[in-house]
Amino acid sequence: MCFAGIGDHGGGPTEKVIAWLRDHADAFPGMRLVFSTPSRFFAAIADAVPSLPLVTGELQYHAIGCYSVHRQGKLALREATQRLTQLDSVLPTLPDEQAQIRQSHWQNVVFHQFHDTLGGTCLPSAYQHVHNQLGAAEAWAEEHLHRHLRQRLTVLPNDPCQRLIFFNASDRPFVGWTECEPWLGGKPWRFLVLDDKDQVVPTQAIPPEAVIGWSWLTRIAIKLQLAPGEIKALRLVPCSDEQPAAPGGNQADANASPPWCIHNHAHSAAVDLSQARCRFSGMDYLLPELALLADNSDTWSHSIDRYAENPALFATWSAPELNFTGPLLTQIAQAGRIGNSDLIRTFRLFQDSNELEMTLRVTWQEKRRILKLVLPIVAHGDTHLDAICGGALERPLDGREYPIQGWTAVPVAAQQQLTVLCPDVFAFDATAQRLRFTLLRSPLMAHHAPHPGGTLDGVSSDRGEHRFRFRFSLDQAGPDALWQRLYCWLRPPFFADLTRGMPPA
């Protein structure tokens, strides 16, 4: 299959090109040139697919800036893809009109995988249309999933207790933490959560998303296991003011105010901000730190295969604050600044896990700079395993910039690897001494070398607020298990309140 046309964007062929193709239809031994389409080509080779060679490795290593620039488009494509995939698994068959709409949304999602659209190198004015189409696809799919959940709730029997409904709208099981904000009608959180066997499900009240002083507005954290497509109904039963605490638990250092140190009950996961150190899975590491570097490359980062190591600016941080603590989880937060950009980072520890969870919020206000999260390591060997579209790929620890799709695993001992889940990061470089996750770049958009850039009316990429999530652990998990963990993060359960059957207040 050979594409004929003008430029690299699918421009139509000229009459001269068409004439040349016709004149040379039989010019190549063993083949004949015919005008066709990709659909006809793939149909013609369908029977030969099992015998085609398997290509392993980088397909086309080019333009490393495209792996991370214009993050908004990459996130929008991912979210639209996830919601439509979930809808396909839950409702594979829709009425004809709705099926056509779904097909149209899928066509838009696939179309925006185009190398300039997803690569972040389109004109700034073009992206509003891209974001609108991807947002419409995500919203349409999510609305149908919520409607499907409400329809399934109609078959549940009445119950005198309020119920919390969780729906795993996925073809994969869900195992992990989730959060919800049940409507309590002005009552404070004084409830036990019971499963269908009347066993207590541990929960912890944490601050709500809204910044408001209503004591009855409550958010709860809860750990669930849900089979693919499962709906789980949990009952709220009023209890005394003092809820029983689970044994053990996370805690902040009682001698530290502000809380510079936190650890879980087994001390297998901890954060010590006073020493810039952390522990997960029982091993100590330096805290991952932000580095701000000059980036004078164009939007594509043509002609380079890596970004500078230094000179770098590093973040400065204020004293930490304790967000919340309890029998199940603890979280602290710090405000900071790097360059012209404000920062907030949080560290969360779980009572039943050796993992360390970190969230970064960056209000990005830079020009021609790149922001990396750097984690010092000592690697065992000279390769690591990265998630890529459709699987995983072993790569050398050579410091080159590579695209990733949500996780990386680096051997640090003979039978142990450092695993980092990073669902909001799309590029990364690694050596045997450190991992560097590419968070943000700020080149001029649609800037192509050799033009020097610097125009006053140019648009710098990705300015505004961004959120990044990370989980660090030591384990021996294979690619399938790591993909499963990632999907649990990307597809949290849908939530609904159910009050049908409750007596009048």
Q: Name the average pLDDT.
A: 93
So what's the oligomer here? Answer: single chain
Spell out the CATH superfamily of the largest domain: Golgi alpha-mannosidase II, domain 4
Termini separation: 70 Å
Number of helices: 7
Write down the Rg: 26 Å
Can you summarize this structure?
This protein is α+β, with helices and mostly antiparallel strands and 505 residues long. 19% of the residues lie in helices and 32% in strands.
Overall description:
The protein is of the alpha+beta class and 505 residues long. It has 4 domains: 15-51, no CATH class; 64-153, Up-down Bundle (Substrate Binding Domain Of Dnak, Chain:A, Domain 2), CATH 1.20.1270; 163-244, Immunoglobulin-like (Sandwich); 251-477, Golgi alpha-mannosidase II, domain 4 (Beta-galactosidase, Chain A, domain 5). 19% of the residues lie in helices and 32% in strands. It has helices at 15-23, 38-44, 71-90, 96-111, 115-119, 127-153, 479-490; strands at residues 163-167, 174-180, 191-194, 203-206, 219-226, 231-238, 251-252, 261-263, 270-272, 277-280, 283-286, 289-294, 312-314, 316-317, 321-324, 329-338, 341-350, 356-364, 369-376, 383-388, 391-396, 402-403, 407-413, 416-421, 427-430, 434-441, 464-475, 494-498. A hairpin with a 5-residue loop joins strand 17 (341-350) and strand 18. Helix 3 (71-90) runs antiparallel to helix 4, helix 3 (71-90) packs parallel to helix 6 (127-153) and helix 4 packs antiparallel against helix 6.
